[in-house]
What we know:
Elements: E1 17-26, E2 33-35, E3 45-52, E4 55-59, E5 62-66, E6 70-75, E7 80-83, E8 92-100, H1 104-115, E9 118-120, H2 126-137, H3 146-171, H4 174-184, H5 192-198, H6 203-214, H7 218-236, H8 241-247, H9 253-264, H10 268-276
Antiparallel strand pairs: 1-8, 2-7, 3-6, 3-8, 4-5, 4-7, 6-9
Amino acid sequence: MAQLAVHEPSSTPPFWSVWTYGHDVRTPNEHYHWRNHDRGPHHCVSIQYNIRGSSVYVERGQKFIVKPQQAFVFSYMEDSSYYLDPDRDEIYECIWLNLSGAGLREHWHYLRQQFGSILTIDPKSTTMRTIHQIYDMAAPKHNTDPYDMATAIYRLVMQIADDMRARWQKTESPVDQAIEQLLQHPTGTLSLKSIAARFDVSREHLTRRFVEKIGISPGQFLIQQKLQRALILLKETNLSVAQVADQSGFGTSHTLIRQMQTTHGMSPTEYRETQRA
């Protein structure tokens, strides 16, 4: 296979991989304190799972107690740290993975933004099995294929997302779950009435709660998001008006044309021409 020379501006490794890994056991009198703001390389992210004992995780000045069967996730070169209470009388045991790869830091940031930096992970869960699997695969003696490792790390990220979302759904009210559905899928084709029925709430209650949280009605929000998507597609692609309408959630070109006339005073074709003039 011919190789093509690629000049990549970023030094971040393209495939997701394990930078370092470890299994630590610390006695009560051992000092243990890591500050992440000056640790590198900058593209690394970490997950540390507590097997025995508790640790203290600090993020932007706020302290969190991380208990057994919980993990904390962080990135290098950020304002966070973690340590063990010097007055503790327990043994501390953990397993940790430092991961790197293009785009991984952005995935990590999204997970933390959605669910926080402290994760509760069942030791018998699929997620925990994947953590142990990646730990084993990282050993040089296994000569793990980079593609297999990247796949395993991606699977871990998605499993964490699924686990945390499932826990969130157990604690959030049906109406807040309905709002999340609208926020996550603004170009979807389900009507507000259908989404309200799906989560067993009234359309009126959903609308009131949405306005309280977001500041505008669900209908206004959905139109804004669909229109924003349509404008980008009209400007950046050669898709037909019908395709733009379909891929932005308007369903029909007639609906898109009507909305464009209302908000911009021009048709989709006219808008595209003005953007490319």
